[in-house]
Specification:
- By secondary structure, the protein is of the alpha/beta class.
- It has one domain (about 5-225): TIM Barrel (Alpha-Beta Barrel), CATH 3.20.20.70.
- It contains 7 helices and 12 strands.
- The chain has helices at about 30-35, 55-65, 80-90, 105-115, 125-130, 185-195, 215-225, and strands at about 5, 15, 20, 40-45, 70-75, 95-100, 115-125, 140-145, 175-180, 200, 205-210, 210.
- Strand 4, helix 2 and strand 5 form a beta-alpha-beta unit.
- Helix 1 runs parallel beside helix 7 (about 215-225).
- The radius of gyration is 16 Å and the shape is globular.
Length: about 230
């Protein structure tokens, strides 16, 4: 079932209002705050190098809390099929966010095997980077994020901002989200400058790395809706 304001014909296709995704949720309290604030999507990270990583037992509990209340997204980084299957069994997500170096062919194979919505992040520092999203025909949604530094341990969630104008028009035929260094103070401007149909946030709603702040979640969703 798509979130309020969506029109769905095949996967994630059309957005009728700015969509808000809160990613990197680890605790029931943060998840409940995300739902209460009116966010559309809740993201859960399955990547052990991340401070936002959830194990399968925690994912199962969080998935039960979220069931039927918010769209669930399972984020992985270059995971193999067995790892993806275990994540899916635990969380029962609506969508998979493939945040590694997955090729267009790998993305298509994952979509065919698991039959879930696919979100493919694209790291952006140049206009050429943004155009790489065109190759991912099998993805239902793109996510334009700041391109991580070469020595970064994380592919996203680094709190870095990129030139939002680079994302404008980069995905004319797909819904997409803007991410990278967003918080309540800049999300309205980011929406205006980029023309994004939705936004994704993780570090921008944290009081410490990996620790979500309920007040910041509420403030971000309000600001995004106003924007």
């Amino acid at each position: 079932m798509p979130p309020d304001g969506w029109v769905e014909s095949s996967g994630l296709t059309k957005i009728a209002r700015p969509l808000v995704k809160i990613c990197g949720l680890k605790t029931p309290e943060a998840l409940e705050a995300t739902i209460a604030a009116g966010a559309d999507m809740a993201g859960f990270v399955f990547f052990e190098k991340s401070p936002r990583h959830v194990d399968l037992a925690a994912a199962r509990r969080l998935g039960e809390i979220a069931a039927g209340r918010i769209r669930k997204v399972a984020l992985s980084v270059d995971a193999d099929d067995d790892t993806l299957a275990a994540m899916i069994e635990a969380l029962d997500p609506d969508d998979l966010q493939l945040h590694g170096d997955e090729t267009p062919e790998r993305v298509a194979a994952i979509k065919e095997r698991f039959g879930l919505g696919i979100i493919k992040p694209i790291g952006v520092s140049t206009a050429e980077d943004a155009r790489k999203g065109e190759a991912y025909a099998a993805a239902d949604m793109l996510l334009f994020d700041a391109k991580p530094a070469p020595d970064s341990l994380l592919p996203g969630g680094n709190g870095a901002v990129f030139d939002w104008t680079l994302a404008r028009g980069a995905a004319p035929n797909k819904p997409w989200l803007l991410s990278g260094g967003l918080d309540a103070s800049n999300v309205a401007e980011a929406l205006r400058v980029s023309g994004a149909p939705g936004v994704d946030v993780s570090s921008g709603v944290e009081r410490a790395r990996g620790a979500k702040d309920i007040a910041l979640i509420e403030a971000f969703v309000r600001a995004a809706r106003a924007g």
